[in-house]
Inverse folding.
């Protein structure tokens, strides 16, 4: 699987989805274009329920953020990075409300109670290869991190982050059968702007 070439091919579609009309011009991508729209953001200090995650571990905060919105907390790339699903161009955004199947007014109080991010140890790696041996082709020799998002309703989304902060890097869902799909890629605004 040639991940980098898929990322390049998907980048144009992803930028279009994100509303970045600059994809065809020489205008730089700005941090405000990478954050969720200001119209949906709310102040976490005032809106986050007790026990909600409002800051991320430093290694994860380098490229990701938890935002408080009118529809509950979301996990997304931060204002320096862009994450998208290559096949659809949809932004890689994960909502606590969707995880907990909340709708209507209940959405606003949906939150993440835990976000963990740690380097995958050898025992975890070997367990992954046992259930998904083909994944070794794309994982061998790479720096691997496990990311777990736990909602207020105790629902969990787990991911494998491959070579974080490479340009681009890939994030795969983790399932009981190994790497899931769809994966998404993350690329920095600096890299996007260099390619203009």
């Amino acid at each position: 699987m040639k991940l980098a070439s898929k990322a390049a091919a998907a980048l144009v579609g992803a930028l279009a989805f994100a509303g970045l009309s600059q994809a065809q011009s020489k205008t730089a991508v700005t941090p405000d274009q990478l954050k969720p729209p200001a119209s949906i953001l709310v102040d976490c200090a005032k809106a986050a329920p007790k026990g909600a995650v409002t800051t991320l571990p430093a290694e994860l905060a380098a490229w990701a953020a938890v935002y408080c919105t009118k529809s509950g907390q979301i996990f997304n790339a931060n204002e320096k990075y862009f994450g998208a699903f290559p096949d659809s161009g949809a932004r890689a955004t994960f909502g606590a409300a969707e995880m907990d199947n909340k709708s209507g007014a209940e959405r606003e109080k949906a939150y993440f109670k835990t976000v963990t991010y740690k380097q995958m140890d050898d025992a975890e790696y070997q367990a992954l290869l046992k259930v998904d041996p083909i994944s070794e082709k794309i994982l061998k020799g790479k720096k691997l991190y496990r990311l777990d998002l736990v909602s207020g309703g105790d629902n969990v989304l787990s991911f494998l982050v491959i070579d974080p902060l490479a340009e681009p890097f890939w994030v795969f869902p983790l399932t009981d059968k190994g790497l899931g799909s769809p994966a998404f890629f993350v690329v920095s605004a600096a890299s996007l702007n260099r390619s203009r």
